[in-house]
Design goal:
251 residues; globular; single chain; binds NADP nicotinamide-adenine-dinucleotide phosphate
Length: 251
């Protein structure tokens, strides 16, 4: 039997990159998956088609998870499609780097509204849908939460917050049989890092990270998805409140 048979998962920001890979890996283990997206309907539909093409179950649901009303609708649609909720992956996030001189209120609020407040509000609403069996919440953090890199103070602060929230909620929700963990990826080749200019073959940033990575390469979305799938499953039944660094040893 597959490890997540009969489970229902919501993955935020699953139209591309790490989120899309997590959605596909959870589905491959038998979970019914809600592929959330904000603007990329085409990407979300593609992820759903890949899952259903392999005999899995998935639906795409548009929702800006920085907005409470959208979040509520995301879970209403989840219940409508699959009837329950067991796994929440808080993956949606943005990363725009800016040196301290260029930080604005707008830059700060944009990052914290999605990466931190959105994650909290999504978790809050998910809690109305987990049943007495409990569940697993996986928050996508980053190595930059603890590894200082220049130009990333606001983004890094959001991910340090994600880890602090993870530890706090693990203690708060343990009695409800809900485990909460975070995964902190190193540099991963995704649509987002590609368009930011981080992971292209000629990127100095990429070369610098590779040179400092014991495993000798940057990550692929599936490197993160396999760990998230483990944390979602009963194989991780006694794992809660942890941050898993998945970075080829770069931290
Ligand atoms: P990506 O390629 O840019 O994809 C981002 C995803 O998030 C897209 O599906 C996007 O949907 C969705 N999204 C953005 N804003 C949203 C919103 N307001 N509501 C709902 N969905 C939203 O990103 P990625 O590189 O895969 O990163 C995913 C997560 O991993 C982020 O939390 C990021 O901080 C973290 N991370 C990434 C790396 C890396 O190197 N890639 C390293 C460490 C941590 P639309 O396209 O529909 O807008």
């Amino acid at each position: 039997m597959k490890k997540l048979e009969g489970k229902v998962a919501v993955v935020t920001g699953a139209s591309k990159g790490i989120g899309a890979s997590i959605a596909k890996h959870l589905a491959a283990e038998g979970a019914s998956v809600v592929v959330n997206y904000s603007s990329s309907k085409e990407g979300a539909d593609r992820a759903v088609a890949e899952i259903t093409g392999l005999g899995g179950k998935a639906v795409a649901v548009q929702a800006n998870v920085a907005k409470k009303a959208d979040i509520d609708r995301l879970f209403t649609e989840t219940k409508k499609a699959f009837g329950r909720l067991d796994i929440l992956v808080n993956n949606a996030g943005i990363y725009e780097f800016a040196p301290v001189e260029q930080i604005t209120e707008e830059h700060f609020q944009k990052h914290f509204n999605l990466n931190v407040l959105g994650l909290l509000l999504t978790t809050q609403e998910a809690l109305n849908h987990f049943d007495a069996k409990g569940g697993s919440i996986i928050n996508i953090s980053s190595v930059v939460a603890t590894l200082g890199i220049p130009g990333a103070s606001v983004y890094s602060a959001t991910k340090a917050s994600v880890d602090a929230i993870t530890r706090s909620l693990a203690k708060e929700l343990g009695a409800r049989k809900i485990r909460v963990n975070s995964v902190a990826p190193g540099m991963v080749e995704t649509e987002g890092t590609e368009s930011a200019g981080f992971t292209g073959a000629e990127s100095e940033f990429r070369k610098q990270v590779e040179a400092n990575t014991p495993v000798g390469r940057i990550g692929k979305p599936q490197d993160i998805a396999t760990v998230a799938t483990f944390l979602a499953s009963d194989d991780a039944a006694w794992v809660s409140g942890e941050t898993w660094f998945v970075s080829g040893g770069y931290r």
